[in-house]
Amino acid sequence: GDWITPTVATIVILVLTVFHCRGQRSSSWLQNTTTAIKFTLLLTFVVAGIAYGRGDWQHFGAGRSLSQQSVPIAVTSLVYVFYGYSGWNASAYLAGEIADSSKTLPRSILSGCVIVTLLYIAMNVAYVYAIGPEGLRNAEHKQVEAITETAARSLFGPAVSEPLSVLIGLTILASVSAYLL
To answer: What does pTM read for this prediction?
Structure first.
């Protein structure tokens, strides 16, 4: 029961740490691979969801106007937005390992910020296309926390949503790897 999640998390951290201890080439390969997989998976979700999913463009006009929004709720919701942008600055953690860091680091941080912002916006477009504001208001709290699974279920059905949510969950490996470095 309660021991499974911490045990799996500990094993993942240990495996990633061992991988990073093997040297810069191994660490670089791991980070590049996990980041490429994460980016490809999320972008594929967006493109497939919009191209082949059962969403509705009418969702974009179905919400409340800005003047009808609750300010405390909107401000609280921004906390999750900040987490969504986490990772763009991961290259700053590695400044000592980067060749010609005075030139490479600013480009890395700027391009990372742009890529994460565009991907975040694209993911939210897919979410609104899939669910819409009414669907989110009526969703159980657990469904809102697992927004990608909820959107995937709406777009593709349960046969795709459950395996996809596991894959999306695995994308956290890129972030864990960066933090370990």
So the answer is: 0.77
